[in-house]
Amino acid sequence: MAEAESSTTEERKIGPETKLSKDQMKILRDAFNVFDTERKGAISLDIIGTILELLGHEVNEDELDEILDEYDEDDTGEIEFAVFARLASRFVEPEEDYDELRKELREVFMLYDKEARGYLPLDEFKKILREIDPELPEDELDEMIDEIDADGSGTIDFDEFMDVMAGGD
């Protein structure tokens, strides 16, 4: 119960403007915890540039100074997770709406499933992957196909297609 209350309090501190999913918040929490080595609930501003770089965003010294001035609200040289999440949300892309993504991928799947069989033979799917990445080495392509067709059916249905194209596990 206390953890749920803590989470709700944290969400209020972060604010609704962050527009981060639960998965994205978990990733940010994990990243924050890696750098909060003393487990004091705050991280040094000195490592913000490193964290942003890990998130795929390089900032120059001037940009970093502006960010630090804006987010070091109490001039301690450290920020708590809620402030860190607000900061990181500026650099993290919002996740696509799952239902919309599923709809778009269904349309793509149907374009390739011309006979409306509900599946694609693996050789056809292999051609799709080859179109997406013509530089993909043949052995890597074969490994992907083997992984996708774990049941050995020789086909890929929409759910398998969705997992592959949406980056599912």
UniProtKB/TrEMBL annotation:
PROSITE patterns cross-referenced by the UniProt entry: EF_HAND_1, EF_HAND_2
SMART domains the UniProt entry points to: EFh
Keywords: Calcium, Repeat
One Pfam assignment: EF-hand_7
InterPro entries: CALM/Myosin/TropC-like (IPR050230), EF-hand-dom_pair (IPR011992), EF_Hand_1_Ca_BS (IPR018247), EF_hand_dom (IPR002048)
GO MF, one annotated term: calcium ion binding
Residues covered by the EF-hand domain: 23-58, 59-94, 100-135, 136-169
Cellular component aspect of the GO annotation: myosin II complex
Protein name: EF-hand domain-containing protein
Lineage: Eukaryota, Metazoa, Ecdysozoa, Arthropoda, Hexapoda
